[in-house]
Amino acid sequence: GDGGGNGGGTGAEPPTPQRVLFPPTFSVSEIKNKQRRHFMFLRWKQQQRKEKLAAKKKRRKEREALGDKAPPKAIPKTIENQRVYDETTVDLNDEEVAFDEATDEFAPYFNRQTVPKILITTSDRPRGRTVRFCEQLATVIPNSHVYYRRGLALKRIIPQCIARDFTDLIVINEDRKIPNGLILSHLPDGPTAHFRMSSVRLRKEIKRKGKEPTEHVPEVILNNFTTRLGHSVGRMFASLFPHDPQFIGRQVATFHNQRDYIFFRFHRYIFKSEKKVGIQELGPRFTLKLRSLQKGTFDSKFGEYEWIHKRREMDTSRRKFHL
């Protein structure tokens, strides 16, 4: 680029202002004074932003000038679209997948032979926030019952659940009064999934939330569960909800998988006119990360694991995802 002096020429001309130019090898982190370093960094960031905007404007003008002949817009590179190919990605027309789905533990639900009935329980002696979270989760999942566990082992709860026709067991674990784990066990034969839970927001902590949810059966949206493992997890979530959503309630529960994090949101949509639809979040919201998938019902000692997340072995690339 041009040097950082004034515009050159004879002394009579006023100097033309020039943009800040750092030497090519200069790094802001070399400045010893903290305040100066911070100031220069902000200035550099500002410059980057300006250049980016100018380039964007220039591109837009060029596109407008070319009109119909403009080249198609470039697709930005993201971690998702650069994803490492997974050989277990499900092809829905695959006969093997169809056979597995017809014979897996969720087949009775999908064939409408069972009606979901869910027991939501907690770790031993839960505290306020976990209790409220369980109550709100029960308003999202129809036909679910909250039971607070007082020293009763999960091994003893499961046979009682099966005897009383419960189809699923959800256990919310907590650490220092904050919900931090979720176990989902499909009864009577499993499987059992262990999730790490984070970013829990209760109803009152959500800005611009809608009125309390109604008793209607919500729609369920499952996004992005593409591999065999993801497919199993998606089927697990689907089987928590009754089959026929009552669209009149306009409520929708979404499990959105992105980079192996499952984001849960619960919304109501509102028709403002024939063409405009708004959505209100009802809450609660939370994020799940699968830690393991186990065959059969909960058995921490002798359980056979189908999949365990081993970070050091599995997360070799930031673009590798398992669900």
UniProtKB/TrEMBL annotation:
Top-level division of the source organism's lineage: Eukaryota
Compositional bias ranges of the Basic and acidic residues kind: 62-71
Annotated PROSITE patterns: BRIX
Chief localization: nucleus
Residue ranges of domain Brix in the record: 116-299
Amino acid composition bias (Gly residues), ranges on this chain: 1-11
A GO term from the CC aspect: nucleolus
Protein known as: Ribosome production factor 1
Gene name of the record: Rpf1
